[in-house]
Every structure is written in structure tokens, then in C-alpha cells.
Write a structure and sequence with these properties.
Pathway: Cofactor biosynthesis; NAD(+) biosynthesis; nicotinate D-ribonucleotide from quinolinate: step 1/1. The chain is α/β, with parallel strands linked by helices. The chain has helices spanning about 10-25, 30-35, 60-70, 100-130, 150-160, 175-185, 185-195, 210-220, 230-245, 265-270, 280; strands at about 40-50, 50-55, 75-80, 85-90, 95-100, 140, 170-175, 200-205, 220-225, 250-255, 275, 290-294.
Amino acid sequence: MTDPDFPIEAAQRLVTTALAEDLGPDGLDVTSSATIPLDQVTTGHVVAREPGVLAGGPVIALVLDGVASLTSGTPPSLEVRITDGARLGVGDVIALLRGSTQQVLMAERTLLNVMSRLTGIASHTRRWADALAGTGCTVLDTRKTTPGLRELEKYAVRAGGGTNKRMGLYDVAMVKDNHVVAAGGVAPAYTAIRERYPDVTIEVEVESTEQALEALAAGARFLMCDNMSVDLLRATVVAAREWVAGRGESVEIEATGGLTLDDAAEYGATGIDYLSVGGLTHSSPIVDLALDLV
């Protein structure tokens, strides 16, 4: 059964595109079709070649179904042994496939490409989540995703223990320096968004304690502290929480910019709610997965 959190429609679109890219307009694997009878049956194992955290397992069935439709055959049977979000060890068998050898080989590269990419993101995210354990801070992703893969990459972040910040420009308003310049200040920008979109969450980017207090005075209750040192961030958190507490309110605070795994725990311990890390999606190395015939 597919995880209900898995973005099945986005995955189907990707699989359709990827198979067309790999098999061409005629849906053809020239090597396999020339050397292997369509009725030859085999068993294949999807295995981990290195440790990680799995993401993208439901893609296997989608790829097998896609290949079967191209060959007018019955898709190989599938037994999933490890589900998304689980840690992988070297040699772990993620899934067993049994069916047409030709179909299995036609599906191999597409399913591995997608799963290796998503597993890489989940594994990278898990390292950040582990580094922040006990601090009360959560790691967030950003919009720095591969075009066309955002839903899947953000799913992989969730599988790795992270949280999605916003899906796009449409669901959260973020007032950054260019918006402040264009609108004539933090207060005019905040007010304009609140009047036009009264229900949308608004976050304001700040680079100093003074800017944070200005944003709070304008009405913001979600701050993104950009490129602050640990000491400046800690002082800003204290000042911001004292300001809202005096009014019987609360504020969410995020830190971003130049963060590394080595300093994640130190930043997380400043009292912030979130660390956002663009590298979760734009710089995660793949995890090496393979499909072995047995």
C-alpha cells in the first residue's frame, strides 16, 4: 500500500517523463529486446549499496506498471521489504521484483534514478534532524528544488525527519529585502499583504535585532533571521520573545544562511523554532541503490 503522504500524481508525471526519456518514442530497450525473450522470467532485488534513509519506494510500482503498458505485458510482481523513512544498511534488500526479465531491465534505471535522488535527500535531512535532536528546533527545506520535482523532493525531506516550509510563492508570504525596498518599508509591505491576503501566513526576513523589532511592530509574528552569528541570533531571539510576551503574544523564529551540520546544534540551542537549509534539496548527494538479478 502506498504511503498516503506520498505525492502519487507528481510521481506518475515524473515516471511518465522519465520512461519516455529513456525508452524513446517507441518505448524500446534495444539491448534487452534483442537479447532476452519477452517471456523470460527473473527475480530482481533492489538493494542499498550504502547507508541512508529510504524515500521513493512507491516509485517502483509506478515504473513497473509504466513499462508493462509499453510492452503490453503483465507487470512484474513486487514485494516491498523496507518502507520510506526507514534507515538502510549496506546490502539491505528494499524490494523483490519477479517477472519478465526484459521489463525489469527496462525499468531499472528509471526507478533507481528517482529513488537514489529522493533517498539522498531523506538521508541528508536525517543528519540535520539528528544534529538538532534535543534542541526543540526543526529543520526546514526551501524552494531551492529541482524544477518539476518539488513535491517529491519535499516529500523526501519529510521522510528524513524534516518539515516543509512552503510549497511555493502562493501559500506563504515572505517579505525579503527587495520587497521592503519596492514597497517602501517593512510596515507598508506587511500591511499590503495582510489587506490583500488576510489568511496567508506572513514571514519577514531580518538581519539584525533592530529589524526584528521593527517587523514585530509592523505586525509580523514569523521572523526569518538571515546570516546571523550565534550570539546575534540568541540576542535577537531574547529581544523578540520579550517584545511579544509583553503583549501576551508569541512569535515563530527561523534562522537561515551559511549554516552547517557542525554548527546546527549550537544554532538550534539559541531558542529558535526552525533552521531552514536549502542544501537539503539543492545539494544532497544521491544514495547508491542498485537492482541485482538473482
